[in-house]
Amino acid sequence: MNKTLVVLLTVLGFLFLALAAFYWLTPAMSLPHYFPGYELGVRVVHVKHGIAAFIVALALFVVAWFASGEKKTGI
Question: Are residues 61 and 27 in contact, defined by beta-carbon separation less than 8 angstroms?
Fold first, then answer.
C-alpha cells in the first residue's frame, strides 16, 4: 500500500510539473478550451496558473518523500 501511494504521488507530481511547463510555454488562445485560462484571441501566457501547478507538484513530491520513509516502531 505504501509503495503504491508513493508511486501514485510521484506520477501525479510529474503530471503537474508537465502542466506547469505547458502553462508557461503556451499562450492562452492555444490552450485546450477545457483548461482554466483559455481565452480566445489572447496571446498572453498564464504565469500564475503555471506557478500554482508547480507548487502542487512540489507538494506532491514532498508528501511522496515523507511517505517513502521508514516507519519507526517504538521509542
Answer: no
